[in-house]
Design goal:
Keywords: Coiled coil, Signal. The chain has helices at about 5-25, 40-45, 50-65, 75-95. By secondary structure, the chain is mainly alpha-helical. The chain folds into two domains: about 1-35; about 35-105, Four Helix Bundle (Hemerythrin (Met), subunit A), CATH 1.20.120. Helix 3 packs antiparallel against helix 4. The longest helix is centred in the N-terminal third of the chain and has 24 residues, at about 5-25.
Length: about 100
């Protein structure tokens, strides 16, 4: 094999190994983390329904602002601040209901 083939095969194996490591880590937040506690997750979802809808609308508003020809930086900064506060409240509610934050995705 020539040098370029060896480099290409090594890179492909590296990407494959990295993907496998990433995929293996994705399940760490599953059953072991407590995400299968249906009652606490359901209580969390009910308690944060309006707040989760607000985060989605803020995210959409930020995306909309970025789509305009002239970007209003002050408006985007204000929306991002509100989004950050809403996400902090969601994390606080998750702790209140003992729902691991990795289950919130």
């Amino acid at each position: 094999m020539n040098r370029k083939s060896i480099i290409a095969v090594t890179a492909a194996l590296g990407i494959f190994a990295g993907g496998m490591a990433y995929a293996g880590g994705c399940d760490m937040c599953g059953k072991e983390a407590g995400c299968n506690n249906d009652q606490s997750v359901q209580q969390y979802q009910q308690a944060t329904e309006q707040l989760r809808a607000r985060t989605k609308s803020l995210d959409l508003a930020i995306r909309t602002e970025y789509s305009y020809n002239q970007v209003n930086i002050q408006r985007i900064e204000a929306l991002e601040k509100q989004l950050k506060e809403a996400k902090a409240e969601l994390r606080a509610q998750a702790e209140k209901y003992n729902v691991p934050t990795c289950c919130l995705i």
